[in-house]
Structures are given as structure tokens and as C-alpha cells.
Design brief:
Layout lengths: L2 E7 L6 H14 L3 E6 L12 H16 L5 E4 L1 H4 L6 H11 L4 E7 H5 L7 H7 E7 L5 H5 L8 E5 L6 H9 L10 H9 L8
Parallel strand pairs: 1-2, 1-4, 2-3, 4-5, 5-6
Helix pairs in contact: 2-9, 4-6
Length: about 200
């Protein structure tokens, strides 16, 4: 069966941690495509960079990833909708486009831990197989598997020391941050003075 992996997020900004997740997903599951869907998360509030720059940086990320194989694409469907994004609506959208494909929903352990707070999470489990990325050594799988049948998720452990929130702080404080992302994204951030007013 055709597989399509979906990464939802603000990518605010994208960094090499995101790249590692995307390339590992391709290696482990061999999806026909990996969609980077720019989202407005109702549990996290508004993004820091304007939406146009979020989209531009995600496209730069897809271009860099595309150098390793033509698998990656960007969707702005969630951005173009009014209000916050809910994962169930995004999954319904892509399921309608690809009704015969298996959807892989890639999430972090932090979202896995609060999965029961997600809108229509039972339907999410019907529409998609979860791929949960967790830091090595955590016990989150045992803590949260009570609501997710074991056949509906795959637990992947790896170490990702990078985070977008830390990067935004480092940029605002004038620290050395450029090496943590591809040069094209770093150049975009510098040219448009993004995250300069972060506190």
C-alpha cells in the first residue's frame, strides 16, 4: 500500500533536528512522499515568524531535503484556513485526496503524552498510524500507551538536542546559531531579521 508521511508543525524555524526526523522517516518507512504541513497549533498559540516566512522557510527545508531524493513537499492548506489547525481536519483532507494510501502521522513524544487532549483522537487513530519520536532513555511509551493500541503506533527513539524555541532565543541573544540549520534558511532569517525581538 502507498504510504504518505505527514509532519505537521510551525517549523519556526526549521533546523537540523527536523531534517533528522524527516530523513529517518524516509529510511524506516519508505513513504512515497513526506508532506511538511505548516500548522497553527491550538495547544501552543501563535507562531513567532509571520506565516509568509514560515512557509518560505519550510519550502527551503523541502528543497534541502529534496537534494537527497524527490520525496518531500510542503502544504500550506492549514495556513490558508481560518483559525487554528486541528490534526483530525488535516488528516481528513489528505485522506480525501489519497483514500487508498496509508497515512503516517509523525509526532513528538510531547504530543504523544497529551494525545487524549487532541480533538477526535479516536478518529485520528482510525485514519493514521502514529510515528512517535522520543528522546533516548525516556519512559513515555509505557506512560501513555494506555489510550493507543500498540498496532496503531511505532515508537522511535533518538537524541535531538535542538529545539525551535531554543533557537529563537539564541537568535534574539545574538548567539552562534547559524550552524544549526542549512545556510539557505539561516540566510533567510538574517535577511528578514526574524526573531530579533524575542524575549
Amino acid at each position: 500500500m502507498k504510504k504518505i508521511a505527514l509532519f505537521g508543525g510551525s517549523f519556526d524555524p526549521p533546523h537540523y533536528g527536523h531534517f533528522a526526523l524527516c530523513t529517518l522517516t524516509r529510511e524506516l518507512f519508505s513513504p512515497e512522499k513526506i508532506i511538511l504541513s505548516i500548522s497553527k497549533n491550538p495547544l501552543k498559540g501563535s507562531a513567532n515568524a509571520p506565516e509568509a516566512h514560515q512557509l518560505a522557510m519550510a519550502k527551503l527545508m523541502a528543497e534541502e531535503l529534496g537534494k537527497t531524493g524527490p520525496v518531500f513537499e510542503v502544504s500550506d492548506w492549514e495556513l490558508r484556513r481560518a483559525g487554528f489547525s486541528y490534526t483530525i481536519e488535516t488528516l481528513r483532507h489528505f485522506h480525501a485526496i489519497e483514500p487508498n494510501a496509508e497515512l503516517l502521522l509523525c509526532i513528538g513524544e510531547d504530543n504523544y503524552q497529551i494525545f487524549e487532549k487532541w480533538k477526535a483522537y479516536q478518529e485520528i487513530l482510525q485514519l493514521a498510524h502514529l510515528v512517535v519520536f522520543a528522546r533516548s532513555g525516556t519512559q513515555g511509551e509505557q506512560q501513555s500507551s494506555r489510550i493507543i493500541p500498540p498496532e496503531r503506533y511505532t515508537w522511535v527513539q533518538l537524541d535531538l538536542p535542538l529545539s525551535s524555541s531554543d533557537l529563537r532565543r539564541e537568535i534574539a541573544e545574538g548567539q552562534d546559531w547559524q550552524a544549526k540549520m542549512p545556510s539557505s534558511i539561516a540566510a533567510h532569517i538574517a535577511a528578514h531579521r526574524l526573531y530579533q525581538n524575542e524575549k
